[in-house]
């Protein structure tokens, strides 16, 4: 497989001589010169690319010279790492989006990553992933160690947090009350709000 004369991927062909003859009958033409190898810039800023990495027992992968915390639930799995602009998507073996992180590899260096190739299909978002928190008396909540100020007017209310690629969308009673940048890469362990406890007199 090649683009513009540059090799993108090599795969084993299972076509027989009879298959090739049938292809010629329906318009296939003789191949030109072999591709020149992986293009030094073709897989950089102009394309979405991906690699596969085995997640170690601590939930870590290595990408270039960068050590990246993916998450211990993925330990032992071969994750698909999709580099798309400023974002890096971690995709599970079954094609589900596990998490989105800031991409630490500049576009001009992505073609040097071991096993880099043009990206495959988009990841499938995890269905129904929402988080609930009860807003404190000071108007704040905490998600994945990130402190978020919802507002004093919403103290005591339950807010639903919808994780997006690099944002948290805050919803109360069906209305979006804010969209804030996600600054944490910590795993979300708690999804339900805790009820407010009444102190014993």
Largest sheet: 5 strands, antiparallel
What is the first-to-last residue Cα distance? 74 Å
Average pLDDT number? 79
Strand line-up in the sheet with most strands: 8-7-6-3-9
Helix content: under 10%
Order of helices and strands: EEHEEEEEEEEEEEEE
Instruction: Give the radius of gyration.
Output: 23 Å
Number of DSSP strand runs: 15
Q: Structural class of the helices, strands and pairings?
A: mainly beta
- Give unreliable regions as ranges: 195-201
**Strand composition percent:** 25-35%
Task: Compute the number of helices.
Answer: 1
The global form is elongated
Account of the 3D structure:
With 201 residues, the protein is mainly beta. Among the domains are: 40-125, no CATH class; 131-181, no CATH class. The chain has one helix at 17-25, and strands at residues 2-3, 6-7, 49-54, 60-63, 66-69, 78-84, 87-91, 97-102, 117-118, 131-134, 140-143, 146-149, 158-163, 167-172, 175-181. The strands form five sheets. Strands 8-7-6-3-9 form a five-stranded antiparallel sheet, with no helix packed on it. A four-stranded antiparallel sheet has the order 10-13-14-15, with no helix packed on it. The protein has a two-stranded antiparallel ribbon with strand order 1-2. Strand 13 and strand 14 form a beta hairpin.
